[in-house]
Amino acid sequence: MLKNINPTTTKSWKELIKHFSEIKSLHLNQLFKQNVNRKKDFSLSLEQLQFDYSKNRVTAKSINLLINLANEIGLKETINSLFNGEKINTTEDRAVLHTALRDFKNNEIKINNQEIFPEVDNARKKVKAFTEEVISGNWKGHTGKPITDIVNIGIGGSDLGPQMVVEALDFYSNHLQVHFISNIDGDAVHQVLKKLNPETTLFIVVSKTFTTVETLTNASTCKNWLLQQAPKTKIEKHFIAVSTNTQAVKGFGINPTNIFPMWNWIGGRFSMWSSVGISIALALGYENFEQFLKGANTADVHFKQTSFDKNIPIMMALLSIWYTNFFGVTTEAILPYAESLNKLVAYLQQLFMESNGKSVDRNRENVTYNTGNIIFGSTGTNAQHSFMQHIHQGTHLIPVDFIGFKESLYGDTKHHRILMANFKAQSQALQEGKTKEAVHLDMKFNGNTNHINDLLAYKIFDGNRVSNSLLFDKITPYNLGMLIALYEHKVFVQGIIWNINSFDQFGVELGKEMAKKQ
Fold first, then answer.
1. Is 204 within 8 Å of 240 (Cβ atoms)?
2. In a 3-state reduction of DSSP, which class is residue 215?
3. Is 424 a catalytic residue?
4. Which of 52, 212, 245, 452 qualifies as a FRET site for 422, CA 20 to 30 Å off?
């Protein structure tokens, strides 16, 4: 079970403070000069993924001390608790078992003395059967026409994850057009509806409790739109639900056979691996959805079984702890060099900031150290024409994750070569910077001697800006599943070390409560 230790009271934390004072001024360029094998020594791999963390302001001693902290906190035991289904979501008295949703070995895990894997397996089979029925055209709308459009109605975890995956993996999509409605903004709802034919549209209402105001309001608007052309008895041809509240779903008018299960041991932002991901399975086909799950499971096995020094999500988390709590960093950037991943940052923003944006620890004490970070980003190379100026020359140290792929999906090698040249150059430029002497020489070489004194100071880059690189062979359902699961485990490790509960979200509720009083 959880040890609930304030990390600042540990021996390891005190040793890290001392170590930080010794190396805080060390430049990355020095570290690379001291060790010509630094990139190899500070890189890890998992199947196709290469994780390079050599461009971080750490030494081998830094890593060892951070691992000591993880051991002193009891991380290994807590990882076992996560996978065994213990109630590590202590404020809500719940297990946290999103990993079980992508485990195909049917291990024995019981919640309230009932094994969960038969339920998980049955839910997968139901998703498979239903999606195959719709994709094949056998599922018909109220006038006998096959479905052409899917509309996912949800918000937060019931929207961000599925939408991100459907867009990211559009290369693998079938003939179905998938749309997403989340915001309570009625204009946005009607903007989607005007593109649709009520004879051939299927709505998925995703709400664990079936009480979420935004989702139910949007679903009611969509139902009323449908009923302008279809009789009430035909709602079952056009509406399905993913929920735990069977009675409320039936009250809405959805046939009980069209209800797909959710469980209270799955948090919303970890739910797309469940029936919540049915829009993914419809867009890509069930086999691709299963590959997505299996990629995540590979990350799970790696996280659970690999020693800390070779464990990618643990290393990602420890480096983040290092910058947040010793360098005073408050912001991290995530830059996927693939336009199809343009929703990834918004998804990870929710994952990180809803999970670890906490100021009270598991002992019900106010924390005295930073937890969580502000997550932002964009796709490369768009980001280079936006906020990268700040990351290169601003007054804040902002660690960056660069995410890249060796191969283009459509085989356009010219574009991809330029894209990946930028991927590599940006992390190199952040590390190396550009000295006064180099700037002077460049300006002189380019014949700009009249303005050297005026511009020299503005063109100097200190470098020593830190980054990780995550490089896959190409975007696939399997690799995307792995990538997302690695970030989930990073969030988990951070929360354990910070002694906070990453799995509740009471801060989400206050604004909703006050909105009802307006």
1. yes
2. helix
3. no
4. 452
- Does residue 13 contact residue 5 with C-beta atoms inside 8 Å? no
3-state secondary structure (DSSP) of residue 44: strand
Strand locations in 98-217 (E): 110-111, 114-115, 149-153, 177-181, 201-206
End-to-end Cα distance, the chain: 43
Taken as a whole, the chain contains a residue count of: 518
**Measured distance CA(178)–CA(342) in Å, rounded:** 17
- Among residues 214, 354, 432, 488, the one annotated as catalytic is 354
What fold is seen in the domain 115-289? Rossmann fold (3.40.50)
Question: Is residue 142 annotated as a catalytic residue, yes or no?
Answer: no
Q: At what angle do helices 11-23 and 60-73 cross, to 10 degrees?
A: 160
Residue (of 142, 139, 213, 208) closest to 176 by Cα position:
139
Beta-strand relationship, 201-206 and 239-242: parallel
d(CA 463, CA 229): 63
Beta strands (DSSP E) in 216-289 are: 239-242, 259-260
**Active-site position among 385, 414, 516, 517:** 385
Amino acid identity of residue 220, one-letter, is S
Phi-psi region of 504 (alpha: psi -120 to 50; beta: other; left: phi over 0): beta
Token pair belonging to 385: 């024409």
Where are the domains positioned within the chain? 7-94+306-432+466-510, 115-289
Q: Which fold has domain 7-94+306-432+466-510?
A: Rossmann fold (3.40.50)
Residue among 155, 152, 159 nearest 178 (CA): 152
**Number of DSSP helices (H) and strands (E) in the chain, helices first:** 20, 13
- 206-218 tens-digit pLDDT: 999 999 999 999 9
Over residues 240-273, the pLDDT tens digits come to 999 999 999 999 999 999 999 999 999 999 999 9
pTM confidence score: 0.96
Around Cβ 363, how many Cβ atoms within 10 Å? 10
**Distance (Å, whole) CA 437 – CA 444:** 11
Residue 512 annotated among the catalytic residues of the structure: yes
**Cα angle: 238, vertex 244, 246; to 5 degrees:** 60
